[in-house]
Amino acid sequence: RVARAEATEASARATEAADFLSGVLRTADPVQTDGQPITTREALDLSLDRIPEIASPKLRGQLLTTIGDIYGFMGEYDRADSLLTEAVRVLNTAAPGSEALYEAHHELGRVRWAMGDTEEAERRFRLVYDEAGAGTYVRTSAVLSIYGLYEALGRPDDALPWAQQFYAAVQEEGGGPGDVAYALGALGAALHGVGRSQEAAEMLEEALRVIEDAWGLDNQYAAQLHYSLSQAYLGAGDHEQAEAYALRMLDWRRSKVPPGSPRLYQHWAEVAEVYDAIGQSALAEAYADSFVTAAYTMFPDDGPRLALAHLTRSTIRDAAARPQAARADALAALRLAEAHGDSALVEAARAQTDRLGQSAE
């Protein structure tokens, strides 16, 4: 009940912020814009110029949070960081201990995470978790962010309790189908991360049932669950189910995504890795070939991406007992990585090349 109230308050604040931004756009001087439509960035800059006119310090802080958040979504992290830091400063004075303050801390943590400062991101998320009221919307968001951060950092043992806590919070608050499925999916992924793959598959199957009952299976989230289930069943040793779910995921993507879309190309690699894991070398290599071909078609000038595609196929060819072909891919990856100065990929490609040993080039 408390979380719903907080969510309602957050929605009201978002509406107020939207009204302010709309007002800025409506009153923009056509002379200053040469009569041309203004860009999103120009609209945000106009909004920032108008914020000092707002009498309420709390609303100023909330708008700084909203605009900083938008800059973060646009990938302009330095600008977002500056605005969210200012939002925290304003709200610390104007609304100490408020939901608005903790939202600013949380969004600043998300931006710091995107900038690679995971220690500061964790500190912000923990601050929100420790200080925001139990059952509040922003505290639940912090729980999810802490889980996601630990998952991304490869710390599955640390991630699992937070996934469990997020699932419990959603159950307690009686979230909608999307919330429940998302919580089940996060918990399933966390269980798989600690090697409890059969339990993970059960959670993910339940998430898929929730999605199917609510919206059917012709949607993005069901496709993602199909892939997660393929990974869970791989871990549980059920190769038949792993293959079936991986192909369902790929079939859906191919039916919905244009053939040349970057969103499709990575899925060739995902299916190749499933076939590699279940020992079907010929199929694994066929999908890996499609992955490399797609990479050159879609990203002909993206050296690091092409190097990674060659490394992926090199690993699959090595598992198929084709060391010469595997090393040829590793050498191609090394040349591409060196040409583009990607030190991490250079190191990985060189290690792969050295491991495979000398062979005819």
Overview of the structural elements:
The protein is mainly α and 361 residues long. The chain contains 17 helices and no strands. Helix 9 runs parallel beside helix 11, helix 11 packs antiparallel against helix 12 and helix 14 runs antiparallel to helix 15. The longest helix has 25 residues. 42% of the residues are buried.
Characterize this entry briefly.
With 361 residues, this protein is mainly α. It has helices spanning 2-26, 40-50, 57-73, 77-94, 99-114, 118-131, 137-152, 156-173, 177-193, 197-215, 220-236, 239-256, 262-277, 281-298, 303-319, 323-339, 343-356.
Profile the largest sheet: none
Low-pLDDT stretches are 1-6, 24-33
> What is the averaged pLDDT score?
86
Q: What oligomeric arrangement do these chains adopt? A: single chain
Helix content: over 70%
The end-to-end distance, rounded to whole angstroms, is 67 Å
The run of helices and strands is HHHHHHHHHHHHHHHHH
The number of helical segments is 17
What is the radius of gyration? 24 Å
What sort of overall outline do the alpha carbons produce when their principal axes are compared? globular
